[in-house]
Amino acid sequence: MAGLVATPLFAASEGVQEIALASVTGQVEMPAKVPEEIDTEGLDLSEALVMLEGKYERPRIPYPENWKEMAPKERIAWRDEFMKTKEYEEYVEKAEAARAARPVFTTSLKEDGSFVFEGIKPSWYQLSIMIGREGMEGKPTPRTARAWALHQFIIEEGESQFDVGTKTLKLQNVVLPGDEAPEWVGTDYEGNEVKLSDYEGKYVLFDFWATWCGPCIGEIPNLKEVYKEFGGDRFTVVGLSIDNKIELPIKFEQKNPSPYEHVFLGKGARGANAQRAYGVSGIPSIWLIGPDGDVIARDLRGKGIKEAVRAALAEEKS
Q1: What is the pLDDT of residue 13?
Q2: Fewest Cβ atoms nearer than 10 Å: which of 75, 130, 135, 203?
Q3: Half-sphere exposure of 160 (CA within 13 A, CB side)
């Protein structure tokens, strides 16, 4: 099925030259090898959504004049305060409005995995190919798609055909609220084995993070706050480090103590298997698991962390 046809920026008339429109073509394929931990049952290229998104201008964040001179901790503190302001809410609204107004074209794959968009004007574009999971609400994203690929390119003026080539999909598991949470196994900072199943009967908020990840560090105050308010016999927080060496999070914890529990997964097979099991493609990745071992919420950030925990605990009492 062909994509939507773009309308020329200017109508052809005397003294005005019509802009030449291009055809965008490409091919999509599954990877030749797939890790055993990845669930491929039911994956079908015919279910792929192929989308072209055009360029749009995001509003500028009003950074302070001394931003470049600020230390990393000062920048994190500034961001935390900024995200609590009315100005931040207005920034988010403007950013969402700008994104919603961008040009978007969609198409489907042909039986041979090829696709084509017709009538595309010269500009910058991002191509995204996504296969979502059955039962998932809304369009899939790279974090929530079972299979995905992204590609950015520019169509120059005068180009009538643009081939993006063959795109191999990246596959991942998609764990959604209501699913059984996959097991993970790590060690605490004393070297003792710790498993998710050890917390059976508790609400567990855990966070895939690393000491080199700025946004991860930015979420630590939120994790401390939610543990301080709700931590106890029925609820706990666990940090899951995927650093290269256990000494890195240990050293970080010594300088920046936190009241909740810490587990080291590492970058090896153990950490990689845990991330693949949950479909973690970026960190921080914060999850809330119920006493029955099922996922309650995923991809929690900022104020949403405490809101999700409060709602889950309140529902248990009702």
Answers
A1: 44
A2: 135
A3: 0
The pLDDT value given to residue 272:
87
Q: Average pLDDT over the chain, rounded to whole?
A: 89
Please tell me what DSSP assigns to residue 294: B
What confidence score (pLDDT) does residue 8 get? 40
CB distance 142 to 163 below 8 Å: no
Separation between Cα atoms, residue 155 and residue 122, nearest integer Å: 5
Q: How many Å apart are CA 179 and CA 192, to the nearest integer? A: 28
CA-wise closest residue to 242 among 205, 216, 204, 203: 216
Task: Identify the burial level of 263 via C-beta atoms within 10 angstroms of its C-beta, where 0-12 means exposed, 13-18 middle and 19 or more buried.
Answer: buried
Q: Of 149, 108, 152, give the one whose Cα is nearest residue 4.
A: 108
* Cβ–Cβ under 8 Å, residues 301 and 284: yes
Domains and CATH numbers, the chain: 22-55+102-171 (2.60.40.10), 67-95 (no CATH), 185-317 (3.40.30.10)
Count the neighbouring beta carbons within 10 Å of the beta carbon of residue 64. 12
Query: In which residue ranges of the chain is pLDDT below 50?
Result: 1-16
Q: Give residue 135's pLDDT.
A: 67
φ, ψ of residue 149 to 5 degrees: the values are -155, 145
Residue whose entry in the numeric block shows the structure tokens 């959504």: 49
Cα–Cα distance, 64 to 78 (Å, whole number): 9
> What is the rounded CA–CA span in Å between residue 121 and residue 231?
55
Contacts of 131 (CB under 8 A, 6+ apart): 43, 44, 45, 47, 48, 49, 140, 145, 146, 147, 148, 169
| Cα–Cα distance for residue pair 125/54, rounded to 1 Å | 5
Report whether 52 contacts 104 (CB < 8 A): yes
The answer to whether residues 219 and 286 touch, using CB atoms and an 8 Å cutoff, is yes
Q: What CA–CA distance (Å, rounded) separates 231 from 260? A: 8
**Position 121, amino acid:** K
